[in-house]
Design goal:
This protein is of the alpha/beta class. The protein has a single domain (6-196, 234-260, 292-311), classed as 3-Layer(aba) Sandwich (Rossmann fold), CATH 3.40.50. Helices cover 36% and strands 17% of the residues. It is globular. The termini are far apart.
Length: 331
């Protein structure tokens, strides 16, 4: 068996996926990124495209992975598979709901199938959205959530809950998987809370790029609802550190990875005004249906089992993010 361990990352050209590719390559893994570029950009991978142990395949994971087109798989086998392909923005929920539903159902079936075939460690990118508009605060992994199954966010919330059910069933070794017996999956699930940083899509509708771009353009801030709703913002390098720790463990239970420092959207807007010197005023828009009023992770499990906690404070992370968004002002 090769000493080099090969990892496949779906959604590898996306915001989080591209940072994962860089980090895992730096740790000595060989990495294949698979992406269909629905919401991602090849430029996100510009720093690794020429790396000798990196391969990029344009592919829709709703179709079975084409093993013959994966040279690193042929060379090294498969040590791990991280399923991070899925549009995750509210504007995507409105424009491409069926693509979202497909990638976390069919895509999860296909990636679990590949992981089982190679006896690879599997990690599912889940989300704090599975808690819905939570009635428990902060949210622990044991909380079952408060989700509107037929609301405008359900294409994302519910498909992530489905993908967790699929992975959990495979981990327990239940039934036959696609008609065959199999060893239980060595699978884990990371529940990602609000993450921000360079390579976010400037136009993806989430609050960080939205307010950052408006401040840089000198436009009024548009805030949905009264702005008292809270979020807990985690910088992308902290998130990736937690994801890698979870991947390299044998933990099979879901783990929250996020920053437990909770802020209202209005407080967050004030930080951006301070950092940019912008004179932007706040314009309130109607609240989004089913938009959570509170969002804050309980990270006891991550601290205890992974020795993980976030290190980057909001002003530091936003300063780096603003530098990135400046490069997109005229794009």
């Amino acid at each position: 068996m090769s000493a080099i361990k090969h990892i496949l990352i779906t959604g590898g050209a996306g915001f989080i996926g591209s940072h994962l590719c860089e980090t895992l390559l730096a740790k000595g893994y060989a990495v294949t990124a698979v992406d269909n570029f629905v919401t991602s950009r090849k430029e996100n991978l510009s720093s690794v495209l020429k790396h000798s142990q990196f391969h990029l395949l344009e592919w829709d994971v709703c179709q079975p992975l084409p093993e013959k087109e994966l040279p690193l798989l042929q060379k090294y086998g498969l040590f791990g598979l991280l399923h991070f392909a899925c549009p995750a923005s509210p504007v995507d929920f409105e424009k491409i709901p069926f693509e979202i539903l497909a990638v976390d159902s069919l895509g999860t079936f296909n990636t679990v199938d590949t992981a089982l075939k190679y006896d690879a460690r599997y990690l599912l990118a889940s989300t704090s959205e599975i808690y819905g508009d939570p009635l428990e605060h902060p949210q622990k992994e044991t909380y079952f959530g408060n989700v509107n199954t037929v609301g405008p966010r359900s294409c994302y919330d519910e498909t992530k809950r489905f993908s967790e059910a699929l992975v959990s069933s495979a981990v327990r070794g239940l039934g036959k998987f696609r008609g065959r017996s199999y060893k239980p999956l060595n699978g884990g699930m990371v529940r990602i809370f609000n993450t921000y940083g360079p390579r976010m899509r400037p136009d993806d509708g989430r609050v960080v790029p939205e307010l950052c771009m408006q401040a840089l353009r000198g436009e009024d801030f548009t805030i949905c609802g009264d702005g008292q709703q809270t979020r807990s913002f985690c910088y992308v390098t902290d998130l990736v550190d937690g994801i890698v720790r979870l991947f390299e463990s044998n933990i099979k239970d879901p783990v929250n990875i996020g920053n437990p420092v909770e802020r209202s959207i209005l407080d967050f807007a004030e930080v951006i005004l301070k950092l940019t010197g912008s004179k932007s005023k706040i314009k309130h828009l109607p609240a989004r249906q089913d938009d959570p009023r509170q969002r804050c992770p309980d990270i006891t499990r991550a601290k205890t089992l992974l020795g993980w906690s976030p290190k980057v404070d909001l002003e530091q992370g936003l300063s780096a993010s603003l530098e990135y968004f400046k490069t997109h002002l005229h794009s």
